[in-house]
Amino acid sequence: MERRMLVAGNWKMYTTAGEGAVLVQDLADELSSFDGDVEVVVGPPFTGLKTVSTVIELDHLEMGLAAQDCHWESEGAFTGAIAPRMLVDLRVDYVIVGHSERREYFGETNETVNKKVKAVYSAGMVPIMCVGETLATRDSLETDSFVRDQVLAGAAGLTPEQAEQLVVAYEPIWAIGTGRTPTPESANDVARMIRATIGAMYGPPVAMKVRVLYGGSVKPENARMFFAEPDVDGALVGGAALKADSFTDIVRAAQ
Ligand code: PGA
């Protein structure tokens, strides 16, 4: 089963709308000579989505657009929140859901992640659902059970058609923004366990289609090692996604 490699940039709380437009144009320039079969996605902050979406459309860029979060309701009195249908209106393709920073600083739980995952599908987009363990969890050898529970809860209640489109980003929290990474083999072990969990929920054929990304200090120097692993179908990239040249090098490593 061939799964298309996916490299997604999570710009976090960086870039104004103008800076985002420049970054996506630089990226398009760098990638103009690239003809590999890799899906490229950029994830600006909410305020940059419209501008970046317009650049992608007007310049006919082969690039997907991701938002970094959303609410699960389609509208309502939720000051400061953004509904999935507002993102669809900006031609957003993916929504990153349950990033560890949202879980840690904004009270995201497996339950809210699941509500958001379902809401993203209902609106016609695809979630990039993030899971991953703390260093304490890893040290106590509980990574598998912890991540399995995140997947079981976060991806519950989907139709098989929805489940097979799911993107899961395995991001060990201790590897995010730290320069530390698990070995590629260990990342693959968790990615395989994630796929097996989806298989137990929705059946092996669905699990074979689900893409599992690795995230956490992915750089041009280490990307190829992760991409060589059979259950790693790409990367969710933070810091290295903010520079066109390093992000492009990671995309090239995925072909
Ligand atoms: P990093 O972030 O690549 O800067 O470690 C990854 C992420 O948080 O998605």
Q: What can you see in these coordinates?
A:
The protein has helices at residues 17-31, 46-58, 84-88, 100-105, 110-122, 135-139, 143-154, 160-163, 184-202, 204-209, 223-227, 244-253; strands spanning 5-10, 38-43, 64-67, 94-97, 126-131, 167-170, 211-215, 234-237. The protein is built from twelve helices and eight strands. The chain has a single domain (5-253), classed as TIM Barrel (Alpha-Beta Barrel), CATH 3.20.20.70. The chain has an eight-stranded parallel beta barrel with strand order 1-2-3-4-5-6-7-8, surrounded by five helices. It is globular. 47% of the residues are buried. With 255 residues, it is of the alpha/beta class. The two termini are 16 Å apart. Helix 1 links the parallel strand 1 and strand 2 (38-43). The structure holds 2-phosphoglycolic acid. The site of 2-phosphoglycolic acid has 13 residues, from strand 8.
